[in-house]
Amino acid sequence: MKMHHIFSLVAAVGLATSCGSGSATNSSAKNADTVPQPVAAVDFNADSAFAFVKQQCDFGPRVPETQAHEQCGEWIEAQLRGWCDKVIAQKARLTTFDGKMLNATNYIGVINPDAKERILLVAHWDTRPWADADPDQAKRNMPVMGANDGASGVGVLLELARLMNGKKPDVGVDILLVDAEDWGTDNEEESWALGTQYWAEHPHVKDYKPMYGILLDMVGAPDAQFYHEGFSLQCAADVVEKVWNIAADSGYSNHFKSVQFGAATDDHVFIIRAGIPCIDIIDMRPGSEGGFYPYWHTTGDTIDKISAKTLKAVGQTVANLIYEL
Fold this sequence. Notes:
Elements: E1 2-4, H1 46-58, H2 67-83, E2 86-95, E3 101-111, E4 118-124, H3 147-166, E5 172-178, H4 194-201, E6 212-217, E7 226-228, H5 230-249, E8 256-260, E9 263-265, H6 267-273, E10 278-282, H7 308-324
Parallel strand pairs: 4-5, 4-6, 6-10, 7-8
Antiparallel strand pairs: 1-9, 2-3, 3-5
Helix pairs in contact: 1-3, 1-7, 2-3, 3-7, 5-7
């Protein structure tokens, strides 16, 4: 993903006229002084989510066209098949900005396939081929482990799949784990999120229109800060409000900040372009180089930077959203 620090850049990535028309069902605005009312429909297991993050890292960096990537993909598919009503492995041949051809796979886990009201949950499972933001120049050609940037979002969504298998929600849920997100360059917006772009052009269901989507990206750092992301506000402000209100009611305002900061070219941008309102829960840091979590695109993005408490904050918030409907 790439950070834009000026929100007026929305039009530059083609979102001004492509925002989806969905809405957050049963959403209600809440005053900042409202006394939080805990929601406890289900209990998100943070230790299980952490184990899923660690398992991905144990394969090594999940760079497309590597053995670690292939093995991790097979493992992800096996987990989804154990918990979802239907699983699709969407194969694609993708061309990177530097001319490489990648064999990529998006994994879609479908829960309650007959439900008309649906939520799309998204994370990317690949990792960046090179640590070009590493403070040590000698390490900038090394691959990124992606414990936070990749594995954390997948870990949360796998645990949600396991949870929903035990207690089916009333709403339908589609878990989209996309490939080839992180093989991009700052000079080309469309060099990012290649797997998502492919899925947006070839959705797993014809005329697919969920109520909205939620992207999880870098959701595991101990001090994670989730601000209102600019493109999310532009195209799905009601969903942003709903999610952040639920996070506050669940006791996680220390991570979910009701303030706008920046705008990230991330998977959700291309989902929005497909006419689906989608938000990005992403760790952004005002004042940091790059605007993201400090180990973003470095060799330091390792499992020791992951907190089960933060995974709990994100996973429980999304679970409370799903079961509130």
